[in-house]
Amino acid sequence: MVFEVTEGTRDTATVVAAREDARAREGLTAEAMPYVPASSAPLPPDSVDPRSAVWAEAVSGGSYTHRRLARGTRVRLTDPTGDACAHLLVFNAAEPHERLNVADTQKIPWQAYLGEGHPLLSGDGRVLATIVSDTSMRHDAFCGTSTALSNDARYGGHDPQNPTPAGRELFALAATKHGLERRDLPPSISFFQGVRVAHDGALEFTGSAGSDTYVELVAEMDLILLIANVPHPLDPRERYTVGPLRVHAWQSSPTSESDPWWNTTPECHRAYLNTADYLASKGY
Description:
This protein is α+β, with helices and mostly antiparallel strands.
């Protein structure tokens, strides 16, 4: 059920009335909300034991979410309508100065286009997360997210309270929840809206693969994830258009040397070994 408030139906004139009003809303849901406990979320991924769920949330267009996740957590991002655009930043939760490096994420696998098996690397030569499943194949590691300047020019506003918030502004809000500042925010990657490089070097927007596609990541170490669900900077539509995003996360296992992704390239193999070496010193 989606709960809608009708003006004049709420009695909050006194503390007691306000308390009763709040308690009467127990169990009601909205189209965009976190689910607590996570096992109570609708539409869990197939074959996932609800008891292993650690995070479930529906993120509206023009909003953001964030979470600290344990090593081995598997995260599925789903685009239910074909209009989501999940801009993502990833940090080493133990040492947040280690963070997503988009250039190395493209360089180490010798592949600029994100997809299944692609490692998300830090500037320290370690793997923060691995893309372990992907039904969309429409992603971008070139353009980053929208900014205050770009949104002001295009939509006439950028603030998080504005109907057209910029991704960079939402990232800044999410970052503060983890003791991070604007200067800690590197360029981001995005899922569900594709970009390709043309023969002349121009960036071409290829849009969405359609509804109900998903991408899954596994955390190779304890992570902080920041997600801003805003239109892609190259989206040609004049209106601020972005659909909802579903997030599900559950307890799983990190990749291991038996997985083929460790040996995609010699450089990838070294990055995974660097990660294992780093984690060994921390008792993993």
